[in-house]
Amino acid sequence: MKIKSLVLTNFRNYKSLKVDFSDKINVFIGKNAQGKTNLLESIFYCCIGKSFKSIKDKDIINFDENEGYIGLLAERKYRELKIEVKLSKLHKKNILINALPIKKIGELIGEINVVFFSPSELKLVRESPEERRKFMDIDISQTNKRYFYLLSRYEKILSNRNKLLKNSENIDFVKETIDIWDRAIVQTAKKIAFERKKFIDEIMPYTEKAQSYLSGGKEEIKLNYVCGCNVKLDEKFEENMDKLLKKNLEKDFKLGYTTIGVHRDDIDIFLNGVEVKSFGSQGQQRTVALSLKLAELESMYLRTGEYPILMLDDVFSELDSERQARLLKFADRTQTFITCTDEKKITGKIFEIEKGKIKTIKN
Fold first, then answer.
1. What is the C-alpha separation between 106 and 116, in angstroms, rounded?
2. Which of 204, 269, 279, 316 is the most buried (most CB within 10 A)?
3. Which domain holds residue 275?
């Protein structure tokens, strides 16, 4: 899986850009606020259908323009792909795959797999469970379209159940009508929970290897999937979760929302036997987050037979020289895009970015 070239028009601070990439390591150097991260963002957008930042589509169009464009040419094992994103401040975006428009983002997910890491990814380790659920969901969805649609279905069911809890005047009415949502939420939750557990089991050995490699064998990591349904993942999952929903119904009614379910899932992360979220240093948390991302590379390769695209945004400034060298050696197995303020002795195709302009300074 390789990205061959990129075309931008009125995207962020890029008025017009066309660039060809190396199949190995591509490095974008330049001072801060010149457009390095914006370039990675445009590639990510073509892979996932949205930015890695929490923004509206219209906000990524150049300030002075009403329309923007991203065109990405990629190559997979057996075919070429052209992804085009047409952005507008006045209309909905249009996404095309090989000149054919798609109707849903789910049709784009998985066409080009990507793993993105930046210093802000520390939130994966130390912030709310939502960040760790997002980590699981983005990864699994890229290689399992059925899972992507399961998530969408679950969110709709959960929303309808919560509306019933919040807007009903008495508990008796809720008891009479909630069964339909309980049956649906239990069935969908089971499928999501089993996929998430399978994913954590799958990446565990790769995360252990990455963490040991990056730390020089000094740190041992363990992951534990925590199901928010509060029941065992066995053949009685649906029966037990249904019982628990009924047991919690009065509490849910008082609160106005559903208190158990996969929308409350989490991942416990331990480093040398200690919970890293609460007791790990910032350096350890950073290495853990990076190890999880590198484990994604291997798990996606296991599932698809191709390594995903790896994007590292301003990561090297946060790592010591030893870990920089180890990361570069690890990254060499796939096409990698790196941003930094200088070359830092990185071997690869080097680009310099200044005020939305790009030039090749080393092939």
1. 19
2. 269
3. 117-305
